[in-house]
Design goal:
single chain, alpha/beta, TIM Barrel, 15 strands, disordered N terminus, binds 2-acetamido-2-deoxy-beta-D-glucopyranose
């Protein structure tokens, strides 16, 4: 399964070895917007018996499949100090901070690394965010401390790992105990999932279902998606892109699939390399319903076209907008509880030389670009 940025970058993956043996790239005059955390968020909120489910008492009685779950696209791939502010990063803040801020869908991409399942963006040389197991441990810790919250994970299985391999990692992290297995008779309410303590829905694109790990769900048996390779703010629509086995969004909805609205844009770093479009992010993630490219407008359009709201939404840089506002609008939630706000990632313009850093990130991508130019 190909995931967004990689279709653009795969071409250059073969050049990585060369890139890394090149001398340090200095003096590449460029202006890049990098994230600076302006706020430090405190430790995870502990919501126990607030009477709220997913930040609102009004959502407890609603079906998992009838509310909007706001999601962080490539949630493990950060543009922060841990990656040298990698321009390949899709988020300023990690998955735990995202959960604190109300994000309830965490998407990421996994690859094989020496037999282990590793969170890597396109290739492990470009951006390696560590093992899936460590990431799941952090999410499990958050779920332990937030017992009224239903969380969804969506993993792109880039190297076609088996369900049993994922199952081993999920079990080792301990998060498998929260795994929800569909009963075949429609989605339960959030409260039912919370009461049963099966509060984690896991979709993988794609795996062959394995009854020993029945909580690992093959994404396209349950979900359909809109296009994910959007390169212009006027390019968002509500047309079904995957799975191709469904002829249209309405056919997919009739078959019981839940809609996932991709809402992130790419921009060109070079003629061949696309990176997350951060310069338009204030518009892209805006709750506005009258601005081209805005999240609020896209969600409203899809709700109107489909006759049902987007159940899942994926955005880059979730704290911008903030994206969660659009989920609240979709869910008719006016007074969310138990959330921690994350300030909009103040972007500062950093001009001048970019250098390769030991942590990869900017250096790796700029080196990718340089290699593309050198070998073009
Ligand atoms: C996010 O960062 C915080 C602070 O460094 C850390 O405690 C937490 O485990 C991280 N979460 C994930 C999912 O890596
Ligand atoms: C929907 O958007 C995608 C991405 O911008 C585009 O490739 C596709 O042609 C669009 N579909 C329609 C029917 O407009
Ligand atoms: C767009 O919507 C905002 C409120 O969300 C409103 O203040 C503004 O006037 C609207 N602009 C147009 C051109 O309709």
């Amino acid at each position: 399964m190909i995931s967004p940025i990689c279709t653009y970058l795969t071409t250059f993956a073969a050049l990585t070895a060369t890139v890394y043996s090149m001398p340090q790239i200095g003096d590449i005059s460029s202006t890049l917007s990098v994230a600076v955390s302006v706020t430090s968020t405190s430790t995870a909120a502990t919501s126990t018996s607030t009477g709220a489910c997913n930040n609102s008492p009004d959502l407890c009685s609603q079906s998992y499949g009838s509310i909007t779950h706001m999601g962080a696209h490539d949630s493990s791939f950060l543009r922060d100090s841990s990656t040298g502010n990698s321009v390949a990063g899709n988020q300023y803040y990690n998955a735990t901070v995202a959960l604190d801020a109300g994000i309830r869908l965490l998407q990421a991409q996994v690859h094989d690394k020496d037999g282990a399942i590793e969170l890597c963006h396109t290739t492990c040389e470009l951006l390696d965010a560590g093992t899936l197991q460590d990431w799941l441990v952090a999410i499990k810790y958050w779920m332990d401390n937030n017992a009224n919250e239903v969380v969804t994970i969506l993993l792109v299985n880039s190297d076609n790992k088996e369900a049993s391999e994922f199952g081993t990692v999920f079990a080792a992290s301990g998060i498998d105990t929260y795994g929800y297995t569909p009963s075949g008779s429609g989605w339960p309410t959030l409260q039912e999932m919370i009461s049963a303590n099966t509060r984690l829905v896991t979709f993988i694109a794609s795996i062959t279902a394995d009854s020993s790990y029945s909580y690992l769900l093959n994404e396209f048996d349950y979900v359909f998606e809109t296009a994910y390779e959007v390169t212009s703010l006027s390019g968002f629509n509500c047309t079904l892109d995957r799975p191709t086995s469904q002829s249209s969004a309405s056919a997919a909805i009739s078959s019981g699939l839940l809609p996932l609205m991709n809402h992130f844009a790419y921009t060109s770093l070079t003629s061949s390399i696309m990176i997350p479009d951060v310069s338009d992010i204030a518009t892209t993630n805006s709750p506005s319903t009258n601005t081209t490219g805005a999240l609020g407008l896209h969600a409203q359009n899809c709700q109107s076209e489909w006759g049902t709201k987007p159940v899942f939404v994926l955005v880059d840089f979730f704290n911008e907008g903030p994206a969660i506002d659009t989920a609240d609008t979709m869910n008719d939630v006016s007074d969310p509880v138990g959330r921690q706000s994350v300030a909009a990632g103040a972007a500062v313009e950093v001009s001048g030389a970019l250098r390769t850093s030991s942590s990869g990130g900017v250096g790796a991508l700029v080196a990718f670009a340089a290699a593309a130019l050198v070998f073009a």
